[in-house]
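Please check this today:
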Amino acid sequence: MKKLQFKRIGFLIGLTLLLSIGVQAWRMYSQFRIIQRQLVMDIQQSLENAVESYFAELAKTDVIALTDFSGNHSIFGGDSLSGKK
């Protein structure tokens, strides 16, 4: 009788141990997926910010002015400062 009782206790301890390890493995996997998604979102946001900053700085430095220094021709049809055409 005692031998059967010790055997049941051993099985109960083993089952509890396997169940605990299974729950911990599932929890670690779900946490890994959450952290992985957060990392991807952070990297994507950083890339978007870097590209936006790059093109904002590029737009500040690349200014093209269309002028005619001879004074005879204007692309707008007249001199906007003096009002002459």
The chain has a mean pLDDT of 84. The two ends are 117 Å apart (CA to CA). DSSP finds one helix and no strands in the chain. The first helix runs from residue 2 to 61.
